[in-house]
Design goal:
Layout (H helix, E strand, L loop, with lengths): L2 H22 L2 H22 L3 E9 L3 E3 L4 E10 L7 E7 L2 E7 L6 E9 L4 E4 L1 E8 L6 E6 L4 E5 L11 H4 L1 H14 L5 E3 L11 H7 L3 E3 L9 E6 L16 H19 L4 E6 L10 H7 L6 H6 L26 E6 L4 H12 L3 E6 L17 H9 L5 H33 L3 E4 L12 E4 L3
Helix pairs in contact: 1-2, 10-11
């Protein structure tokens, strides 16, 4: 029952018992009318003289935590109230659930307590509006006030570990890049290269052409501000999204965790880097305003972008990916592409980047080539076996299901063949391709909030 309903019920009881005493008299009716009047007066006092100027402040060790780790929150509550209070209950809508704290203030007006959040998945969260409740000793009359303090919390992905079977260039990435930067500082690289089809004639280096006997062109002026690029592909066609995986797609989570590992390695070795999340369509444009402000704040970190990475909800990918991000990278820089599998759009982007002079490395998180994922033939497919078992029944509905299953397997096989052809084409262009599907995702328990005392 709401506070207004409680007061209306109290007023009705006062009128009823007072009318009974006036009409009939008697000590019992007088006692009941007095009790009802006291309860109504108590409700009015709690409502009009309850806590005001409620201020709640939350403090954490950091505004971003790693997925799966515990985050301790210290809460400080202050309010003004002219009357003593027997009890108050503070309800907070935390990212891990509702936390309730029972306090017995009396004449105290300031409290401090702590609780822990655990089991949070990567993402951007905030505390929603909560409420502060207070009332009388029996709980017959209660009142409440809304508390608004939208504290943000960013949960960044865990960084995957480099396994023993991973190629050595992963762990040595920092040393290679640093040596390249040192050599580029000590010995300037040539400012020209051999002519390629499409180069403008205005950039022809005639002196070098005369010396070498081959047409040479100037290299475009580039900036050395970024030496490593990390591209996390968000296109839906780059991952096999099952109907049962509405919340988590393992192959995409592997790509995100691998990107986090690259970021940690680059920061550890002091290597300039840039992170892109491409292929997600217009999903980022529909973010809430507070999320956009948080992601574009001066304290923003590259891992914050990974916290919001999502597979595109669109069925079809865009016709092309943006190439403007390459403008800030030096020619010859290394670009690591993380995706479940290659699609036509991503292959086209890689080819464009190779032609511009960048070194491309692709890391896939789904078994595509060299695996046994497509050993099932159409004749031995589950759909054809189902048709053999149910063929004598003449069920048209089951035949339709059989056709759909066969068509789905045929489509998957076609995609597999096209992907193998694309990967072989990329290998011929010097693209390094690796699989990082052997790492299992850590099990995430249910998000919960635990009170750890004052």
């Amino acid at each position: 029952m709401t506070a207004l309903g409680q007061r209306m019920l109290g007023a009705v009881l006062v009128v009823a018992f007072t009318s009974l005493y006036v009409w009939h008299g008697g000590k019992a009716a007088l006692f009941l009318s007095i009790i009802a009047a006291l309860m109504l007066a108590s409700a009015l006092i709690l409502h009009f003289f309850g806590p005001r100027n409620i201020n709640i402040r939350r403090q954490m060790h950091a505004n971003r935590v790693v997925a799966g780790e515990r985050a301790r929150v210290a809460v400080e509550l202050k309010f003004d109230c002219p009357i003593p209070l027997l009890w108050i209950i503070l309800c907070e809508n935390t990212p891990a659930g509702v936390h309730r704290k029972l306090l017995f203030p009396g004449t105290r007006r300031q409290f401090t307590y702590q609780y822990e959040l655990s089991g949070l998945r990567r993402g951007i969260y905030r505390w929603e509006s909560g409420r502060l409740y207070w009332g009388d000793v029996f709980g017959w009359n209660t009142a409440s006030a809304e508390i608004v303090n939208h504290t943000p919390l960013i949960v960044v992905p865990q960084a995957t570990e480099w396994g023993e079977n991973d190629p050595g260039e992963y762990s040595a990435m920092g040393e290679d890049a640093l040596s390249e930067r040192r050599s580029s500082q000590g010995n300037r690289s040539p400012e020209f290269r051999e002519y390629q089809q499409g180069d403008p004639l205005g950039r022809v280096h005639w002196k070098s052409t005369a010396k070498t006997g081959r047409l040479q062109t100037f290299l475009p002026e580039t900036s050395d501000s970024v030496s490593l690029g990390i591209l996390v592909y968000e296109g839906a066609s780059g991952y096999e999204v099952m109907q049962s995986e509405k919340r988590v797609t393992p192959s995409f989570e592997r790509a995100v965790r691998a990107a986090a590992r690259w970021i940690h390695t680059a920061e550890r070795d002091n290597i300039p880097y840039h992170l892109w999340t491409e292929g997600g369509g217009s999903g980022s444009a529909h973010q809430e305003k507070w999320k956009q402000e948080l992601l574009h704040s001066p304290e923003n970190h590259a891992l914050d972008k990974l916290a919001q990475a999502r597979i595109s909800t669109a069925q079809a990918v865009s016709t092309s990916l943006r190439t403007e991000m390459l403008d800030r990278m030096a020619i010859g820089s290394r670009i690591v592409i993380l995706t479940g599998r290659m699609d036509d759009v991503l292959v086209e982007w890689v080819m464009c980047a190779i032609e511009l002079g960048y070194r491309i490395e692709v890391q896939l998180t789904e078994f595509m080539a060299g695996e046994d994922s497509s050993h099932i033939s159409l004749a031995e497919s589950p759909g054809s076996n189902l048709a053999q078992k149910l063929g004598n029944r003449g069920d048209a509905v089951d035949t339709t299901v059989d056709d759909e299953n066969t068509q789905s397997i045929a489509t998957d096989r076609t995609i597999h063949d096209l992907s193998n052809e694309s990967l072989e084409q990329l290998r011929q262009r010097g693209v390094q391709i690796h699989w990082i599907t052997d790492g299992s995702l850590p099990s995430m328990r249910k998000a919960e909030v635990t009170d750890v005392g004052a």
